UniProtKB/TrEMBL annotation:
Record bears the keyword Aminoacyl-tRNA synthetase: no
Organism this protein belongs to: Siccirubricoccus deserti
Pfam family for this entry, one: SpoIIE
Protein name per its UniProtKB record: Serine/threonine-protein phosphatase
Matching PANTHER family: STAGE II SPORULATION PROTEIN E (PTHR43156:SF2), STAGE II SPORULATION PROTEIN E-RELATED (PTHR43156)
Annotated transmembrane regions: 215-236
Length: 634
C-alpha cells in the first residue's frame, strides 16, 4: 500500500536523521571534551611551571646572597628594577639576554638598589618535564626553539613544523604518532613579547582509544537504528494486513465476485467498520442479483402470456390468414432463444419484437396493445432500477450519519476549568462538518484545544476524510508548537490521499486556562466569536488562509487574544453564516446579533438560543451547520 510505504519511508528517514544527528552530536561532544581536557591540562602545566620557576628563583637568590658565582649577578638600581613587584617585593621571570632566554630573579636591597641574578632555564625545563610528564620547549618570538629538556627526544621534530607563538592548543600527527601542542606567549618585565612556551604531550594512545570508542558508539547507534527500523516495518506490516485484506475483498466485489471472504468483521476499529460496510454492500449486490433473476422469470412468464394471447387473437382471424399467422408464429417460436439460453435482461424485449414482426398484418388494435405492453415493461424496469438506487443511497446516508455522530467528542467533566458543548444540524446531504475538543496536557490540564472543521463534499469519501482530519489533529496538536504549525502538518498529510481535491476548512484554537489566553489559526473557516457578557458579542479578527489538503507547506498566520474571565468562545462551521432566514443569509454580523440576544453565556443556553432560530421553519440550510461553545469557569 502506498500509505504504508509513505509511513515506513518517513519513519526510516526520521530514524536515519536522528542517528546522524546523534553521531554528529557525539563527535561534537567528544571534541568539546577533548578541548576542555586540553585546556585544563595546559592550565595545570602553566601552574606547575610558575611554581617550579618560583622555587628555582628562590634558590638563585639564595646562591647570589651566599656569594656564589651566577650569571647576571649585579647590584644596581637600573633596568633590572623592572622585575621588582609593587612594594619592592622579590620577582622573577624570563628575560631575553642576547639571543638567549634566561630565568632572572630580583631582590630589593636595603639601600634602595636591586640585586638581579640570572641562570639558563635548562634546570627549570628538566624539573618541569619531570613534574608534569610533558615536554616544555622555549622558543623565540618567531617560534624557533631556543631551549628544551633532554626528554624532548623525537618529539623535538614536531617543534620545527611550528612558527609563531599565538596562544592556543593543537594536535599534530606524523606517521603513527599524535602529539598535543599547547602554546603560551612569554613576555619580559616590560610586557614585550620575547618568545613562547610550548607544551608537547604524546597523546597517541589516548587518541586511538577515543577513536575506538567513537567507532564502537557509532556502530552501536547504527545497529540500534537498524533494529528499530526492522521492528517498525514488521509492526506496520502487521497493522496494515487487515486493511490490505479488506481492500483486496473490495476489489473482488467490484469485479463481481460475491463469494469473497470479508475478514475483520469482528474488529471494533475503523477497519472493522469499513469491512462491515463492505458486507452490507455485498448483501445488497446479492439481493439485487436475486431480484434480477426473479424479474427475468417474470419477463418469461409475461412473454408466454403474450404469446398465448397472440395465438388467441390469431384464432379470431379468417382461416387463410389464421393459417398464415400460425405458420409465422411457429417460425418465430422456433427461432426464438430457449429459456436456458436467455441470460440478459433484454431477452424478453427481443422476443416481443420477434413476435411483433410475425404479426405485421395484424390489426392496428393488436399493434397498439403490444406497444402499450412494452411501455409498461420498460416503466417497471425503470422503477425497479430507481428503487435499487434509492435503497443504496439510503444505506450510504445511514452509514455516513452514524460516522458523523461518532465524531462528536464526549463532554468535559464538571470539575475542569472550562465548560464546552457543541451541536450539529445535519443537512439533506452529508456536508462533512465535525468538531472536537481535548486536553493537550492530560485530562484537567491547563491547555484546551478547540477544533471546528468541514469537508466540502458528500458521501463516504468526505466522511472518511473527516475522520482522518480529526485523528490527525488529535495526534499532532500535543506535539506541535502552535495551532498554525499543527494545521500546516495536517494539510500536508491530507494532501497525500485527497485524490478528489476536496476542500477542508478548519479552525484550531488553544486556550490557556491559567493565562486566559487564546492562540488561534484558521484555514478558510469562519472566524470565531467572543461573548464577554449577555448582550455583547463580537467577531474576533483571526487572519485566514487557504483550505487544507490542497497545497503543500501551507502557511497559516496566528493570533493571540486575551480572554476575559467567564467569557464564551463560539466556533462555527460555514453552514451557520450561510443559513438563510426568510431568504437572507445570516452572515457573521447576523450571528453576532443572534448570540447577543442569548439570556446567558452558559454553553447549553447559548446553543439552545441559536438552534431555536437555525432549526426553525424560516431557516433554510444548504448543508450541515455546527456550533461549538467553550466558556472559562473563572
Amino acid at each position: 500500500m502506498r500509505l504504508r510505504l509513505h509511513i515506513t519511508t518517513s519513519v526510516v528517514l526520521l530514524i536515519a536523521v536522528a542517528t546522524v544527528a546523534g553521531l554528529v552530536g557525539m563527535a561534537t561532544r567528544g571534541r568539546q571534551e577533548q578541548a576542555a581536557v586540553g585546556a585544563a591540562t595546559l592550565l595545570a602545566q602553566e601552574r606547575a611551571w610558575h611554581a617550579i620557576q618560583a622555587s628555582v628563583a628562590d634558590a638563585l637568590r639564595s646562591a647570589a646572597r651566599a656569594g656564589q658565582a651566577v650569571e647576571l649577578l649585579e647590584q644596581r638600581a637600573g633596568p633590572a628594577t623592572r622585575l621588582a613587584l609593587a612594594g619592592q617585593q622579590p620577582a622573577e621571570g624570563l628575560e631575553r639576554v642576547g639571543d638567549r632566554l634566561m630565568l632572572v630573579a630580583t631582590q630589593p636591597l636595603p639601600g634602595g638598589g636591586v640585586m638581579a641574578a640570572g641562570v639558563a632555564p635548562t634546570s627549570l625545563l628538566r624539573q618541569v618535564a619531570a613534574a608534569t610528564g610533558a615536554v616544555p620547549v622555549l622558543t623565540d618570538a618567531e617560534g624557533r626553539p631556543v631551549a628544551m629538556p633532554e626528554a624532548a627526544g623525537p618529539l623535538a621534530a614536531f617543534i620545527e613544523r611550528l612558527r609563531g607563538v599565538e596562544p592556543g592548543r593543537m594536535v599534530l600527527a606524523a606517521g603513527d604518532r599524535v602529539v598535543s601542542v599547547g602554546t603560551v606567549p612569554v613576555l619580559d618585565s616590560a610586557g614585550q613579547l620575547i618568545g613562547g612556551r610550548r607544551w608537547l604531550v604524546d597523546v597517541t594512545e589516548r587518541t586511538w582509544t577515543q577513536d575506538r570508542d567513537d567507532l564502537l558508539a557509532a556502530g552501536g547507534a547504527i545497529g540500534l537504528s537498524g533494529l528499530l527500523i526492522t521492528g517498525f516495518t514488521l509492526w506496520l506490516r502487521r497493522v496494515f494486513r487487515p486493511l490490505e485484506l479488506a481492500l483486496a475483498a473490495q476489489r473482488a466485489l467490484a469485479e463481481g465476485d460475491l463469494t469473497v471472504e470479508l475478514p475483520g468483521q469482528e474488529r471494533e476499529d475503523e477497519i472493522g467498520g469499513a469491512v462491515r460496510a463492505l458486507l452490507v454492500f455485498r448483501q445488497g449486490r446479492i439481493a439485487l442479483g436475486r431480484r434480477a433473476r426473479a424479474d427475468r422469470r417474470q419477463q418469461r412468464i409475461r412473454l408466454g402470456f403474450i404469446e398465448a394471447q397472440l395465438g388467441n387473437l390469431a384464432a379470431t382471424l379468417d382461416a387463410p390468414e389464421r393459417a398464415a399467422m400460425e405458420r409465422d408464429l411457429q417460425q418465430v417460436l422456433a427461432s426464438a432463444p430457449k429459456d436456458g439460453e436467455r441470460g440478459g435482461e433484454g431477452d424478453g424485449a427481443g422476443g416481443m419484437d420477434a413476435l411483433a414482426m410475425a404479426f405485421r398484418a395484424m390489426a392496428e388494435r393488436v399493434r397498439s396493445q403490444h406497444r402499450k405492453l412494452r411501455g409498461l415493461i420498460a416503466e417497471q424496469g425503470d422503477a425497479l432500477a430507481a428503487k435499487t438506487r434509492m435503497e443504496a443511497l439510503e444505506q450510504e446516508l445511514s452509514a455516513v450519519a452514524t460516522m458523523q455522530a461518532r465524531l462528536a467528542p464526549p463532554p468535559l467533566p464538571a470539575e475542569t476549568g472550562a465548560a464546552v458543548a457543541g451541536r450539529l444540524l445535519q443537512g439533506a446531504q452529508f456536508g462533512g462538518d465535525f468538531q472536537d475538543f481535548f486536553w493537550l496536557d492530560g485530562p484537567g490540564g491547563r491547555r484546551l484545544a478547540v477544533f471546528m472543521a468541514s469537508v466540502r463534499g458528500s458521501g463516504l469519501g468526505a466522511a472518511f476524510l473527516a475522520i482522518s482530519a480529526r485523528a490527525l489533529v488529535r495526534s499532532l496538536a500535543p506535539q506541535a508548537a502552535s495551532p498554525g504549525e499543527c494545521l500546516s502538518r495536517v494539510s500536508d498529510l491530507l494532501l497525500r490521499d485527497n485524490d478528489q481535491r476536496m476542500e477542508i476548512t478548519g479552525f484550531l484554537g488553544i486556550i490557556d486556562l491559567r493565562a486566559q489566553v487564546l492562540v488561534a489559526a484558521r484555514a478558510a473557516a469562519p472566524p470565531p466569536l467572543l461573548l464577554t457578557q449577555p448582550g455583547e458579542a463580537r467577531v474576533l479578527e483571526v487572519p485566514g488562509a487557504p483550505p487544507l489538503g490542497l497545497q503543500p507547506r501551507l502557511k497559516l498566520p496566528e493570533v493571540t487574544i486575551e480572554l476575559p474571565a467567564r467569557a464564551a468562545l463560539v466556533a462555527v462551521s460555514r453552514g451557520v453564516p450561510e443559513t438563510a432566514l426568510r431568504g437572507v443569509p445570516l452572515g457573521l454580523d447576523g450571528l453576532a446579533t443572534l448570540l447577543a440576544g442569548s439570556p446567558g453565556l452558559d454553553p447549553e443556553v447559548l446553543l439552545a438560543h441559536v438552534l431555536e432560530t437555525l432549526g426553525g421553519p424560516e431557516a433554510a440550510r444548504p448543508g450541515d451547520a455546527s456550533l461549538l461553545v467553550a466558556r472559562l469557569h473563572a
